[in-house]
């Protein structure tokens, strides 16, 4: 009976426990040269991809706090006309409201001008002059909707498809499904930057793996100080000493495993080998001194400053190294007041680096198989809020995001909100649709991509309707 | 140093650990006294942003009930066990204790250290491997005594001045190896 249990346990472990470092393990066995070819780390899900992928990786640019669609990509002349007048109750009656609860709801005109750009003639605001230059590269979705009106649950919803915390983040899902092409870096990397109005906290569970194996959790790299916790040798210990130490640990573990045959010990050996490689590969990744000056200038990045610009450059370096899901958060878009001032700051920090990232990927031929997604956890109200000058409250019934790259039709605008920018009314795209579309581009049918948990076949897109937005695909 | 019951421990952490938090903004200060060595259950729990060591070992955020705690086996856990100052200091304490024991020779000391951690004798090939680690690190630290000093200054207790720096540093490396063996990390 006991033997039977052990057998089952080991079979289970051998099927589920070896993902992380089988590539690292190979190299431990002397096949080091494979690393140069990005052998990568396989995922756990069987039968993937379901179809030929258009995108190999995702760079998700999260504008945390919720940027205003009404001052970026969704021009509403009617709102200009009604500026200062009561917001028609037909729009707001019975709708969820965040901070404006119980207050008089008045229209606030767009606080900037819009122009048409590129051959496609996409409307982009004056806050985003660098986006204007890439109007023909991006697909603007003006008809997003989400279900959560406060920051933390809205991020949770955007990342996991559920407001209940504890579900896997999309980066974990995708690594679980497809593995990663990186064999000396984690497949899901998170970078954060700050700048703008009162940055909202970001909880580390936003990149959690939920019920999926924890090796698929996102790893936060810090662009100032130590890039990853404990990635440096202890003070006074040389790389050679550390290498020999890890070799010895590996040999002791291997010897023990010769009579235990426990796959968890193999995983341990591989994990230590990967840890040692990360001690070299992570600082190498973060050290941008090998980038030519014109590239640094393109992004406007000063190495080690922790800015969004530096993170965009690092995103490209991570993409080159085969990382599957790269998630950037820029905290500062919560513009309840002082919207013009803070839009200047946030756009000043993010507009140009975003352009640089797209151009840099394009020049390297990587935009074709990299999906870029830009957007916040929600948008902002057409109604005025005045926390220190004119601003806008949280808004979930209509907002804008954009996508670009692998498999996305460039230079188009999809969907629309009503005349005041309140409700998405045409070709509505729910967060679940965004997830379904993202998975589709990666070669995954979201209906068939599930993980058994608590007796249910859990999916990123859940059980409510979700569609692949085929109109935006090439 | 004595501590009362129920005191939390703010474990050592890297600078900027709290940078993602707000309302209010705050700075993490780790404890610099005996609270540092309290068991993990006493470690301060920052629910929105778990201590990186706790996170590496699958600690739940405690935002909701966790019926079953996952047990991962990842490079991040390996990095914590290898390089987290808390574990480096623990290895030094183990080496220090071992060097304060009277034994016949290095081989017996390796075995005693092994016994202390794993409750079994080291096989002769295991002793050989650890003696090799000892020899290499002795010579590395003898060549570069400044590095030995730096290495031993990790943690909050000043290194014992009763033991030669290079000797304690070399044995601390041996202790790191033993503490990082799979057999020492888990009984599962």
SSE layout and pairing:
The complex is a heterodimer of chains A (474) and B (188).
Chain A: H1 2-16, H2 22-28, E1 57-64, H3 77-81, H4 89-92, E2 114-117, E3 122-125, H5 129-133, E4 138-145, H6 151-160, H7 170-178, E5 188-197, E6 219-220, H8 239-260, H9 263-286, H10 293-299, H11 308-320, E7 325-333, H12 339-363, E8 370-375, E9 379-385, E10 391-395, E11 399-405, E12 412-414, E13 416-417, E14 424-426, E15 429-430, H13 431-441, E16 450-453, E17 456-459
Parallel strand pairs in A: 1-7, 1-8, 4-12, 4-15, 5-6, 5-7
Antiparallel strand pairs in A: 2-3, 4-11, 8-11, 9-10, 13-14, 16-17
Helix pairs in contact in A: 2-9, 8-9, 11-12
Chain B: H1 52-56, H2 75-83, H3 85-99, H4 106-118, H5 124-143, H6 145-152, H7 165-179, H8 182-185
Quick rundown:
By secondary structure, chain A is α/β, with parallel strands linked by helices.
Description:
The complex is a heterodimer of chains A (474) and B (188). With 474 residues, chain A is α/β, with parallel strands linked by helices. Chain A has 13 helices and 17 strands. In chain A, the strands form five sheets. In chain A, strands 1, 4, 5, 6, 7, 8, 11, 12 and 15 form a nine-stranded mixed β-sheet that branches. In chain A, strands 2-3 form a two-stranded antiparallel ribbon. The longest helix of chain A is centred in the last third of the chain and has 25 residues, at 339-363. Chain A is globular, with a radius of gyration of 23 Å. The termini of chain A are far apart. Mean pLDDT of chain A is 90; it is low at 1-38. Chain B has 188 residues and is mostly helical. Helices cover 47% and strands 0% of the residues of chain B. Chain B is built from eight helices and no strands. Chain B has helices at 52-56, 75-83, 85-99, 106-118, 124-143, 145-152, 165-179, 182-185. Chain B starts with 51 loop residues before the first helix and ends with a helix. The interface between A and B is large, with 60 and 65 residues.
